[in-house]
Amino acid sequence: MFVRASGICARGWGLAVTVAVLVSGCVQPTARPLLWEIEGTRPSYLYGTIHLPDERVLALPPVVERALEAADAYYGELLLNRAAEDAVAARMDLPEGQTLHDVLPSDLYNRTDRYLQARGLRLAPLDRKQIWVIATSLVAIDYVWDLLLRKPLDLKLRDLAVWHGKALGGLETVDEQVTVFESLTPEEQVHVLELTLGRLEEAERSGTNPAREMVTVYLEGDEQGVLQVLLADFDPEDEVSRKLFDQLVTQRNARMTDRIARGLRRQPTVSFFFAVGAAHLVGEDGLIAQLTARGFKLRRLTPEDAAWSLPADNASGEETRPSRRLGSQGAGSSLYQPAGACLPLMCAERAAREQAKRSDSRVERARVPDPVKAIAGERLPSSRTDRGPQRARR
Fold this sequence. Notes:
Layout: H1 10-24, E1 35-38, E2 44-49, H2 55-58, H3 62-70, E3 73-76, H4 82-89, H5 100-103, H6 106-117, H7 131-138, H8 153-163, E4 167-170, H9 174-182, H10 186-205, H11 210-219, H12 223-232, H13 239-266, E5 272-277, H14 287-293, E6 298-300, H15 343-355, H16 361-365, H17 373-376
Helix pairs in contact: 6-10, 7-10, 11-12
């Protein structure tokens, strides 16, 4: 997505990879992951993520790895595979014959370009992108080079789920997420970009960084801090901001709660691992509050929960049920980015990976149920033994 990335020279690339590998082993995972157990016939798990490739975020606590290993199915906000990336990419461009030069006021175009230039990028290579793509990408722009070295947390979790042979799915469709931004008029999109850029410029003058502030409260496991960062990104006095908050947060929270509740009730012997943007978990309308109101019992897990073991494999072939505790050996803003709008980052990651000649072929071969129909009623494996022999414990 960001064309300047292709200008990294081979020697610099090799050194960067070496340094990243050496340093990554020294990063300690957060001691307070945003992970909840949902009680049931078999427990399921709800995990708050952040859509960034920060190496501190990517250092998963053992309790998270073991919850994922204990589950039968992994569900993110979207089913992140090649088809989803292609579907998003197909809707990121302006109508034929239009460019950002045509649709943005010249002063706003120049301000945006200057903001990117300060980070070694230019707006010109993105001249065919929709205004909302630029607005939702700006807050995470400082992480764009990191996408050449590592994947965002959501993609790391997906890859771990594939490695462990989990069924994959998504709580939403690409159309549902993209339509939120496509429903904005051109004038509203310009307004969103102005608000986003203005906030980032003000943060720069004050020596702060909204994306890194979000990472800080995330690593601290601070639920109220996550909520405060989310609310700071929306102006309740601004009509467009209120509209986006309703569509990006309130309506999506209700939709994801409906689908999680439906899956849990229709398939009580399936253990799900749900991973959504951390901002969707918190607040009166967050997933935790809504699931609790529907009668589900949720308990926030701690690192100590990782010390307990899964029951031994059942040699008789009968259904095995993980204990209440977790598994043994685990797998090794824009103004609105914290609300879970990870589509531009997903496309940026795809472009970066293509430049690095990486492949995600294992994801394409994984068992992939339809992202909405599966949670609505498709019967996923009801136990670990349903999928045949498991990979040996490490």
